[in-house]
Design brief:
The complex is a heterodimer of chains A (591) and B (702). With 591 residues, chain A is mostly helical. Chain A has one domain. Chain A has 18 helices and six strands. In chain A, strands 1-2 form a two-stranded antiparallel ribbon. Chain A has a two-stranded antiparallel sheet with strand order 3-4. Chain A has a two-stranded antiparallel ribbon with strand order 5-6. The relative contact order of chain A is 0.12. Chain B has 702 residues and is α+β, with helices and mostly antiparallel strands. In chain B, helix 4 runs antiparallel to helix 5. The longest helix of chain B has 39 residues. The chains are: A mainly alpha (591), B alpha+beta (702).
């Protein structure tokens, strides 16, 4: 790591940690329906929403009803996105007259945006009309993020409440997440991004003459270029804040109209981890023990920081085989050195590796560089962060509820070792909670491994398209790197991240369907057991804390929690990783 | 009982022999399916055996010798786990059998009906009149009435319905002093296997054969009937989930490996035998194989402590207890109060008070009365007088007057509680001095019980009776506090006295002037606050509180109702036992947690052994992961499997004995256990697998 990289990462983490407490405390007040400062402005709007929808905001529901509401909202959202894509050719705000999206790709995208994965099998500027972007994808960006936050809040209430039958009102949690948290933050960020040059326009794409003609692969001279436009800044703001990550343009945040300057890059980076990190504080505040929130945040950082250092170091070290050819890859005043393949020169290695780590730690999935071009170890970091279950920050809400489920498992094993029935924050962890927690941990592992296994047996290796019967390769690189590409795709979909390794031609029927199903399973099969845990914990009495109670805010517990997360992830994926990035790395460094 | 208290050697040869036989019997899949981890190993072993058969006919995927080695050690893994369970069962059963041996099948004198007359029934004549018969004890049913006479063994657990007798219970408690059993009250319960020494009893049988406490306990130990406890179920679910994860990780490795072989253009896809070996090494066989043994051993330790638990759930709950309700008398203080001081009122010489106190107590056979006589003799040299020579009339204690004493030559000497003596004095026209009242208060405040002595209308002074707090009890309570357990003293004393004793003994709280209702209310309040409450009790009026408490230990000397209401019976009737019971419960949970951690931590080394071994043919660079430098791929896989099987056997003593519990804070316990079983579990297998590999190489197997 260069000194510059240390500074960039340090500045980033410092800014992030400074914002955790104010935003976390604000969100706690929002969810506890206490005055939060924006009530006079947004209160009437909130009440109007409830009246319009006929919702009694004071009526709370059981976990089952809560779960039904979650699924219903998301299912309707999925249908809307699907049909918008299928019908966009006949709908307004389509200046480029883009045709309807194919059924398999439309399903994949609908599932992807409903489940907060935001995996993109399509290229934004060549596929989606402005209306589809705004009304379909933009709305889902808010809804899927608010859903994750609502489920988290329900779980936190389950932990905080005693002998209660209800865990809150989903509609209220959804409305307040959107209105009081996501909308104001997005507004601020969108304006800041526009100031940096991110486009926000309904105008059709512009065609401009190149100052200097160039030629394409076939040697034809090119004198014109089409510049895509659209209402991008508003969408990018929520894409970053809501851990969505689905880019307006195909190149995502590497595109100069999405992410033009170092300042826009910093703001977008900060937005990736902002809400997931601050929610830790919200959790602590809502359970009445702020130390518990800090402990969880510490556990996340304890995994994040070392992996960030590994990624930075690996990228800066570059490829020894290239160095052996006499290429100067040591950072100097002239160039950054290291592995610059697939990275934007305006971001360099430090900000690319930082983004890659943050976007996969959180289940954001937006990219500002091509992960496929990373060194084997550099690419291993984003992949393993996803395979840990997206609990290191993770998705807004979903990351923390995933981490709390890991805490329940850690407490179960550790609690036994102190000779008591384990309890977390006073709630006894019994067979029912363990059953549900096991499901939460098991399902992403299962879909990733099984999906990858099916793909590499053949269906995911080659495909044909309607217009040509020729067999095309899905996997751009043979050997272990090709395996990594497939494993990465399923890790990303199976943990609702949505980032792409690239190098894999995923807009093919097999991947559209397989990844779409994977995303839906891993999102909703996790939400339902999580809410079941919330309901079960809410019903329990709380055991008072005593000397015999295992403290869950101590450094020792943080170590244990980190150990459990790493061990579960490692034990599940080490054999697969050994055949992908690990062997690739060993081959690269072997003499 | 003496035999049960003696520590049994860990590997008692007869038990080991039986356990080896049982280990094979337990291969029955119907038995194994109760344990998902070991069931997976069983299926794996059978599959490996088929692969070996396939290799024998020349179609094998790997050399037959290698497949045989793996298959054999997979079978050993199952057998070792079965052996552990059988050992625990065997020890538990032996323990129970030792208890059961006390109830030989004796003849019982069964009465067809309750004799009409109150006196001692004559069995011979009843039998002649066909109103009674001699039956075998095993034929007795609930509700049958039996006569037990001097020298007879009591044929079954029951309640005394008529008669008083001294009973030798040493067979159960190891206590040689006989105890009195009589109808009514809290001493009406008798236990089968004890012997009537004098007089006679008519006993109503309280349980059908096979349903006694002992039988229930034995069923908790025996594998087939054993029901899993709540925590065991939760752990089982976690282990099953881990098994599924590893099953997926191993099963998907086959397609991954097929792809890799094609991509690399060399090597062969992973052999099924190697996959089975990897699977069995990864799934938590150590804890899965020892889980039931740990549970049974916990019950077994209860029997060794002479406590009969009627449910496994109760043993587990004992570890969770955070409030202990302890009866003051017998637990915190020695049973009896003793006189320690005479405090005369102004103008009365202390000798006169001592003399009057001694006189009033001469005929008082209670321990308190005797202690007054002893104090008078030791402190003031007053010798005991021969009561018969004095022509005195003794006034026994009565509930109406609440005083006792003596009438002698016109002197009416009385002693009793302050208010009772005040009434006595005022009836005779005397005054009760304010100074004396203060003295009485002062004594009560110091935790003593004040008795006032008066002669006719003149109060002489007070006797300070003191509760003697048991030696070492304060340290015990400090330990309990360290464990996070709150102690509450239950006493019938007034709050002032109770507070002083509570302070001296170092309990956290007390319930004074306790009534059964107050006890029940207190338990409910604690439970409403989320706490788990343990208590001991013996009387029938304790039953509601016992039924409410989470861990309720009934004294064996207590009534049948109390025993039914509780979930444990302490054969020694020792109220301090509760502390031991809590430790046994904690030990049980800790052993499970530690071995789970150990088992999971082990997996890291197994990856380092097996992953390079199976893929080095396809990707030679993966040989760099062979950090243990194991000789060959085959020896690496075999070493891992052998280690995985042997560790079960090596940990059997730990599972049976349990992890030592020390009363330190939870944080400290966690740190220590994580270091030993977490870090240890990470490192030990690296060493173990390497050593086994070296041995295999030395033997020329690899």
């Amino acid at each position: 790591m260069t000194l510059n990289a240390w500074w960039q990462c340090g500045l980033y983490l410092a800014a992030l940690l400074c914002l955790v407490k104010p935003l976390g405390a604000y969100m706690a007040r929002v969810y506890e329906r206490q005055p939060c400062g924006l009530d006079r402005l947004l209160g009437p709007c909130e009440r109007w929403c409830y009246r319009l929808a006929g919702i009694d905001p004071d009526r709370e529901s059981s976990w089952r009803h809560y779960a039904v509401c979650v699924i219903a909202v998301n299912f309707v959202g999925l249908l809307v996105v699907y049909f918008l894509q299928r019908a966009q050719a006949w709908l307004p705000f389509n200046p480029q007259t883009l045709p309807a999206v194919s059924p398999d790709s439309a399903f994949n995208t609908a599932a992807s945006f409903a489940s907060n994965t935001n995996w993109q099998g399509y290229g934004g500027e060549t596929t989606m009309s402005y209306l589809t972007q705004m009304l379909g994808l933009g709305v889902q960006n808010f809804l899927s993020a608010a859903t994750g936050m609502a489920v988290l809040v329900a779980l936190v209430r389950g932990i905080a409440r005693r002998s209660a039958e209800t865990i809150g009102n989903f509609w209220v949690d959804l409305t307040r997440s959107t209105l009081y948290i996501l909308l104001p933050l997005s507004l601020v960020l969108a304006i800041a991004l526009v100031s940096q040059g991110v486009v926000q326009s309904f105008a059709p794409y512009q065609t401009v003459h190149l100052l200097e003609p160039t030629s394409d692969a076939d040697g034809n001279t090119i004198t014109e270029q089409t510049l895509p436009l659209g209402p991008a800044a508003s969408q990018i703001a929520i894409k970053q804040l809501g851990t969505n990550g689905g880019g307006f343009f195909n190149a995502n945040s590497a595109h100069p109209y999405e992410n033009p300057t170092p300042i826009s890059n910093f703001l977008e980076l900060l937005s990736i981890l902002l809400i997931p990190a601050a929610l830790c504080y919200t959790f602590g505040a809502m359970v009445g023990a702020r130390r518990q929130g800090w402990a969880v945040l510490a556990a996340m950082l304890a995994i994040f920081v070392p992996l960030l250092v590994i990624c930075q170091t690996a990228e800066q070290a570059g490829n020894p085989r290239i160095a052996a050819l006499g290429v100067d890859d040591v950072a100097g005043s002239e160039h950054s050195g290291g592995n610059m393949e697939g990275k934007e020169v305006r971001f360099g290695i430090a900000n690319s590796a930082l983004w890659a780590t943050a976007t996969t730690a959180a289940s954001n999935g937006s990219v500002n560089s091509t992960h496929d071009s990373y060194t084997p170890l550099g690419g291993l970091v984003p992949m393993s962060l996803m395979q840990l279950g997206e609990v290191v920050f993770g998705g807004v809400g979903s990351g923390l509820y995933g981490m709390l489920v890991f805490a329940i498992i850690a407490v179960f094993i550790a609690g036994l070792m102190v000779g008591r029935t384990p309890e977390y924050l006073g709630k006894k962890i019994e067979a029912y909670e363990i059953k549900m927690a096991a499901l939460v941990v098991l399902i992403p592992c299962a879909v990733v491994l099984v999906g990858t296994a099916i793909a590499v047996l053949g269906p995911g290796l080659t495909y044909t398209t309607a217009d040509s019967p020729d067999l095309k390769q899905n996997v751009a690189n043979p050997g272990p790197h090709g395996f990594s590409e497939v494993l990465y795709a399923f890790s990303s979909a199976g943990n609702n991240n949505g980032s792409a390794f690239a190098g894999l031609s995923a807009n093919a029927p097999f991947y559209n369907v397989a990844l779409g199903v994977t995303m839906l399973i891993s999102r909703y099969w996790l939400i339902v057991p999580t809410l079941a845990i919330a309901g079960s914990l809410a019903r329990k009495k709380a055991t008072p804390v005593g000397l015999g109670t295992l403290p869950t805010h101590s450094p020792l517990f943080v170590v244990l929690l980190v150990g459990v997360v790493l061990l579960v992830g490692a034990l599940t994926f080490v054999p697969a990783l050994a055949l992908g990035p690990i062997v690739e790395h060993l081959q690269m460094v072997a003499p | 009982m003496a035999a049960a208290q003696k520590a049994r050697p860990l590997f008692d040869p007869p038990i080991v022999r039986q356990a080896i036989v049982d280990a094979f019997k337990k291969l029955n899949p119907l038995h194994q399916i109760r344990n998902p981890v070991m069931f997976t190993v069983l299926i794996g072993s059978a599959f490996a055996t088929l692969l070996w058969a396939q290799a024998l006919i020349g179609e094998g995927e790997a050399p037959a010798g290698f497949i045989f080695g793996v298959a054999a050690w997979l079978w050993f893994t199952v057998l070792f786990a079965n052996f552990a369970e059988a050992m625990a069962e065997g020890r538990g059963k032996a323990q129970a059998a030792a208890l059961r041996a006390t109830r030989q099948n004796v003849a019982a004198k069964k009465l067809r009906e309750m004799p009409a007359e109150e006196g001692r029934p004559d069995f011979g004549s009843l039998q002649a009149h066909r109103k009674a018969e001699s039956v075998s004890a095993s034929d007795l049913r609930l509700g049958d009435i039996v006569l037990v006479e001097a020298g007879d063994q009591i044929p079954a657990d029951g309640d005394v319905v008529r008669g008083v007798a001294s009973v030798d219970e040493s067979a159960i408690t190891g206590e040689s002093a006989p105890v009195i059993r009589e109808s009514g009250g809290d001493r009406s319960s008798v236990t089968g296997g004890t012997r009537v020494l004098s007089d006679w009893l008519i006993v109503r049988v309280a349980a059908n054969p096979g349903e006694t406490f002992l039988d229930r306990m034995i069923s908790l130990v025996e594998g087939a009937k054993r029901r899993k406890t709540p925590n065991e179920i939760a752990l089982d679910i976690l282990l099953a989930a881990m098994t599924i994860v590893f099953l997926l990780a191993c099963a998907t490795l086959l397609p991954f490996s097929i792809y890799s072989v094609e991509a690399a253009g060399q090597g062969t896809p992973i052999a099924l035998t190697a996959l089975l070996a990897l699977l069995v090494c990864l799934i938590p066989t150590t804890i899965g194989g020892l889980l039931s043994a740990i549970g049974i051993a916990g019950m077994d330790r209860m029997i060794q402590a002479n406590v009969i638990a009627t449910s496994g759930r109760a043993v587990e709950a004992a570890g969770d207890v955070d409030v202990l309700l302890l009866d003051k008398t017998g637990t915190i203080t020695l049973g009896n109060r003793q006189a320690v001081e005479f405090i005369p009122v102004d103008g009365v010489p202390v000798e006169a008070l001592a003399d009057a106190a001694q006189l009033s107590s001469l005929a008082d056979e209670t321990p308190e009365g005797r202690s007054v006589v002893v104090l008078a003799k030791e402190r003031y040299g007053l010798r005991g007088r021969n009561v018969h020579d004095m022509h005195a009339t003794f006034i026994p204690f009565s509930a109406q007057t609440r005083v006792s004493g003596v009438n002698l030559d016109g002197r009416q000497v009385r002693k009793g509680a302050a208010d009772a003596i005040e009434q006595f004095v005022k009836e005779r026209g005397g005054q009760f001095p304010a100074a004396l009242r203060e003295q009485v208060h002062a004594i009560a405040k110091r935790g003593g019980t004040p008795l006032v002595v008066a002669e006719n209308a003149l109060p002489l002074g007070a006797i300070h009776l003191k509760d003697i707090v048991k030696g070492g009890i304060q340290e015990r309570f400090a330990e309990l506090r360290q464990m996070g357990i709150k102690t509450v003293m239950i006493t019938g004393d007034n709050p002032l006295t109770a507070a002083a004793i509570a302070a001296e003994a170092g309990v956290d709280d007390f319930l004074a002037e306790a009534t059964p209702e107050a006890k029940l209310k207190m338990i409910r309040e604690y439970q409403a606050g989320g706490r788990l409450v343990a208590m001991t009790g013996d009387g029938t009026n304790d039953s509601p509180a016992l039924a409410q408490a989470d861990v309720a230990v009934a004294m064996n000397s207590g009534t049948q109702a109390a025993k039914e209401a509780g979930n444990m019976v302490d054969l020694d009737s020792n109220p301090t036992k509760l502390i031991e019971i809590v430790a046994i419960g904690k030990q049980l949970l800790m052993t499970r947690g530690a071995l789970t951690t150990f088992s999971i931590a082990n997996d890291v080394s197994k990856y380092f052994a097996i992953i390079p071994a199976v893929f080095v043919g396809t990707y030679p660079v993966l040989g760099m992961l062979n950090v243990m430098r194991l000789a060959t791929p085959a020896s690496a896989i075999l070493s891992a499997v052998i280690f995985n099987a042997l560790i079960i056997v090596l940990l059997i003593p730990l599972a049976l004995r349990g992890i030592r519990y020390r009363p330190v804070s939870a944080d400290r316990l966690l740190r220590d256990n994580l270091l030993v079983y977490g870090l240890g579990g990470l490192i030990v297998p690296f060493v173990g697998i390497k050593v086994i590999d070296l041995i295999l190489v030395a033997l020329g197997i690899a």
